[in-house]
Fold Asparagine synthetase A.
Amino acid sequence: MLESLIHSNSQNILTSHSMLILQIQTEALKAIHDYLYEQNLIQLMPVMLSPITDPLSHETSDAKITYFGQELQLTKSMIFHKQLAIASSNTKGIYIMSPNIRLEKYDKRDSGRHLIEFSQVDIELREVNSLKFMELIEGLIISVINRVKEKCKIGLENLGVSLRIPARPFKIYSSEELKKKLGENFEKESSLREIDPFWITDYYREFYDKEDPKRPGHYLNYDLIYPEGFNEALSGGERDFEYKILLRKIKERHQNPEIFEFYLDEAKEGKLVASAGGGLGIERLVRFLTKIQHIRDVSPFSKVPGEHYQI
């Protein structure tokens, strides 16, 4: 395994090895911006403090401050902001280079892919279904790989990496079929078996992920999974936007509707619209492009769950 990019104070933060990784990250980010610009998406600036943030479907510790008597959450994702923004505009879609704070539990320390502070390109498309969003992301991933292969030949060679251009469309599996075939750890097992990125659909998750009206108890959501054991790249889904459905699902998940009062009021007044979106982790993308085993070695100042940090 590469030594960590976080060294003692007497050493350089950026080594020649880490500069190769950061050059690849720079080209990947340029490819993302160029591709989304060509797709006519509008870029929003990130929100880092908000009265509400993503409740997530797994447990994390709260990250919040009190400011002039109001409790503000550090952003876990901009899901609510994206829905409100896309509903109040006539644009095709929006995206944000969004820094997120998720205080993950200690058991995520050795996963190789979790950070408590990370960035994602958070995307939302207006009035599209899952397949349309997945098409956009497939084009994005291929554009990134093509650019990195073209612009970072020496860096990839020095890292011992050969990148494969995946074929479209990416394979699609349901979580139900993979769970029956591979067991509870189906994401990891399927990632190890594939050679190209692929989709897994239909997870029981957050209340805003759209329930399939044709199949109650199933969901129109998806994860993009990297091959070769690199696991989840993106998580997203179509969005429920009708008040009664959102309220029911919040209560089913034993959450307090008062927390989401402003968002629910917008839904009650019919101000939300159909959309689909997701968040693509930047550090996870760079980890996949460079074939680095642990995400701590992808960028300077990385913060892995449960570890102590120097600066």
User: Anything to note?
Assistant: The chain has one domain: 16-169+228-298. The chain is about 35% helix and 20% strand. The radius of gyration is 20 Å.
